[in-house]
Amino acid sequence: MPKLIIDDIAVEVPAGTNVLEAARSVGITIPHFCYHPALAIAGACRLCAVKLLDGPVKGIQMSCSLPAQDGMVVSTTDPEALQLRSMVIEWLMINHPHDCPVCDEGGECLLQDFTIAGGHGRRRYQGKKRTFLNQYLGEGIQHEMNRCIECYRCVRFYQDYAGGTDFGVTGSAGRVYFGRFADGALESPFSGNLVDICPTGVFTDKTGRFRARYWDYEFAPSICPHCSVGCNTSPQNFQRELIKVVARRNDQVNGWFICDRGRFDKGYVNDGRRPRQPMIDGVACGYEEALDALAGRISDFIGMNGTGSLALVGSARLSLEGAILLGELARYLDGAQLCYFADSSLSGGSLAAVQLLNEQNAASLSDLEGADCIALLDLDLMQEGPMLALAVRKAALAGAQVYLVAAEPGAAQKDLPFRCTAVGSLDEVPLEGGGQGGRRLRRRRKGARTAGPPGLDRSEVGHAAAGGERLRRGAAGP
Amino acid sequence: MELPLFKHNRPDRPVTFAQYRQEGGFKALEKAISGMSPTEVQQAVIDSGLRGRGGAGFPTGRKWSFVPRDLPGPRWLICNCDEMEPGTYKDRVLLEHNPYSLIEGMTLACYALGVRHAFIFIRKGYEKAAANLGRGIAEAKEAGLLGERIAGSDVSIDIDLHLSAGRYICGEETALINALEGKRPNPRSKPPFPAVKGLWDGPTVVNNVETLANIPAIVAHGPGWFKSLALNPEGAGSKLFCVSGAVTNRACFELPIGTTLGAIIDGPCGGMREGKKFKACIPGGASTQFLTAEHLNVPMDFDTVAKVGSRLGSGGVIVFEEGRCLVAATLNLIDFFARESCGWCTPCREGLPFVKEILARIEAGGGEERDLGILREHVKYLSYSFCALAPGAMAPLEGLLTHFEDEVREHISKRRCPFKGQ
Fold first, then answer.
1. What is the pTM of this model?
2. What is the ipTM of this complex?
3. How many other β-carbons are positioned within 10 Å of the β-carbon of residue B380?
4. Where are the domains of chain A?
5. Span A35-61, average pLDDT
6. Which CATH number is correct for A3-77, 3.20.20.140, 3.30.420.40, 3.10.20.740, 3.20.20.60?
7. Which helix (H) or strand (E) holds A22?
C-alpha cells in the first residue's frame, strides 16, 4: 500500500492506484477529460497535470497515468501545473464552437466545468475554427462533431469496452473525426452510453433534446424495468414527463453503463393513452372511490360464482411490490387462481429457478465479470439482458472461457461481443473432470453460469443449478 | 580508414549480391554463427559504443540488454525505415545502393537477441529501396544465409518486409508497433517499454536502418576498430550525413563521427552555393535546433552537439544562407509537424496549429509583441505531450527564438518579412 502526500494530505492507497484516483479518495478533484474509471488509461488530454515535488518521480506528470508510489509529494495546485492546464483548455477551445446556449449538454458539461476551473478566459488564437460535417447516427443519438475535444472516450467505450465495430476514429492531426464510415444508425445496443461518456456535447440524447435544461430536471434513483438484470438508472423528469434516462453507477450491477433499450425505450411512460388517474367505467374518480368499487365488484362476483371461478393474472415482469400485493390478495381470496404464465410448464421452470436460487449460488454482474468459466444456457444474451453480455465480454477479455449451450447457436452467437464455444448440451461444458478442459478448470477460482428461464422445464433448471453448484464447489478447492 | 557503410556502394547501380560477398559481405554473420555466442555478439555491440542512428542516439547495446532473457514466447526485431524526418534521406541512399549490410546486420541482431522473425517497416515512398531489400532477402535465403538453418547451423531467422501506409508518426517506435499490428499508429504509453512488451505484447527491439547496417562491421572487425573510426575520443563509428540547402553538393556522405560541421560543408559539400554566406543550419533533421556560424567548429557527435543545445539527430543537415528568412523556414517545418501529428494528445494536436497560425501571421506582417510570449509558452508546455513529436517540433522554434529573436522582432516591427522584396 503506497503512502504519498497530496497537497499536504497523507494518503494511503492500494497498489496500482493512480495519483488522480488517490487524490480523489481524499476529496481532491484533479481536472480530467480522457480519464474515466471504467476505461483504460489513455493519457491523451493532458489536463490532469500535477507537479511532483519530491519522491521517486519529479516534475510535471499526468496524474491519470502515474501509479501512486511510496514517498511521492504531489502538488495539484502548483503554478506550472495550473498553467499547463490552462493552456490545455485554451488549446481545446481553439476549435470548440462556444455554442453552449444551444447545446443540450449545457449544465452537465465537463468542458464547461473545467474551463471555468482551468483559468483560461481570453482567446489569443486568431485563426479560423476547424469545422466538421455531422453524421446521422440513428434515432437515439445526435452528433455534433464541432464540439469535440478529442478525449477518445467514445471510441474507447464503443470499441474496446463494448466490442462495437461500426464506430471509430478516422483522420489524423487536427482532423481526427469520431463517427462512422458513412451515415447510419449505430449498430451497438450500447451506443446510448456515448451520451453519458462524452464530456461535452458531441453525442446528446436525440429522444430528449431541447426539452429542458439539466438544472430543470427532477431526478430519482431508479431501476430499469426492461429486463431482470436490474441496471441502476436515473430517470430525468420535467413537468411530469419522463424526458431522459441515464445510467446510475452501481459497481455490483451495471457499473457505469446501461443498454439502449433501458435508455431510449421509454415512450410508453409518457403515452397519452396511459391512465393518469383512477377511473370507474371510463369516468375519472378518486382512489378511495375506485378501490371501494373494485372490492365491491370482486365480492359481487364471488357471491355469484364462488372464489374458484376467479383468476388473478400477474406477470413475470411485475414489480416486486406489485407481485407481493397480488400474492396477498390471492391469500385473502382463498380459492382464487393466481397465475403468471399462460403456459403452466413455464411456470414450473421459473418456480424451480426461484426456489433453487440462494445467496450462495446467485451471481452478480460483478461476479460474472470476474469469472473464469461461464456457461450460457440456451440464452440469447442480447435479447434477455444486454448488460450481461458486457459483463461476459469483460470476463472473456480477461481470459475466461465462455460456453454457449444451445441446440442452434448460430444467430445468438453471431451478435455476441465476445468469443464463445458453442456446445450442444450442458454435459459438454468441462466442469470437474469431464471434458478436455477439466483439468484446467479445477484450478479456476470462480465459475458462473447464467440461464434463461423461459423454455426450460423443472428438471432442466435443476440440472443447470446442480452444474453451477459443482462449478462453484470445484472452484473453492485447491 | 575505410568506413563501413558506403564502402560497397557503386556510383551507378546497386551493389550485387556476388559483389557484396566478394568484398567480405556475410563473413561477419558466418563468423558469429560458427564461432560466437549470442551474448558475445551483444557484448561486441555494447563495447563498440554504437548509438542509435535514427535520431535519439540511445546506446544500441544497452537497448538490447533491456530485453528479458527468460520470458517465454516469441520476441521480435523491427528495423525502422520510416524515414520521414524532413531533411533526412540517409537510409534511402544506403538501401538504394546496398540492401545487404542491413540484411546481414539484422540477421546478426536476431542471432544476438534470440529473435526468430524480424520485420523491416519501410516507408511507402521508398519503392526502390524496398525492391532492393526484397531482392536481397530472397538472395540471402537462396544462399542459405537467411531462413531455415542459416549456414548449416541450427539457427533459423526470417525477415519480412512491410511496406507502410506512411505517416511521420510511424517512425515513433511504439506507433510503429501499433501500425505493424494493423492498428492506428498512435504511440503507446511507456512504460512498459517495447523491450519488455512490444509487438503483440512480446519483447521487441526497434532499431534504425543505419544502426543495424553498422553491426556486420562491428562483428567483423571488433568494437575497438569501430570506436577508432570516430575523430573524437567519446564518439564511435561513422555517420551518414545527408545535406540539403545552400551548399554546392547536396548529397549523402559517410563521415567519421566527430567531423566538424564546417568540415562537412567545406569538404564533401564543396562549400556554400554561389558564394553565399553561411547563416545557420539544422544539424540532424527537422526536430533539432538551429546551429549558427559560431558552431561551425563543433564536432558532430551526439554529446558535443547536445552540449551546444541541439542534437546530432538523424544527420539530416539543412543549410541556410544569409538572406534566407528563418521565420519562413521554421513555419515550413511547423506546418509539416502540425500536419503529421497523430491527433492523440491535446498539446500536439491543437498546440502545433496554434504555433503555425502565429508564425504565419508574423511572416505575413501581422505579428504582435505578445506573440513571442505565446510562442515561448508553447516551447515550454508542448514538452508535456504524450510522445516526442511535439517537443521535437518545438526544437527549431526554440532555436529561432534563441538565436534569431532579433529577426522575429524585425518582422513584427516592420510589419513585413524583411527578406522579401529586397
1. 0.91
2. 0.94
3. 15
4. 3-77, 99-108+127-270, 275-299, 306-340, 353-476
5. 96
6. 3.10.20.740
7. helix A19-25
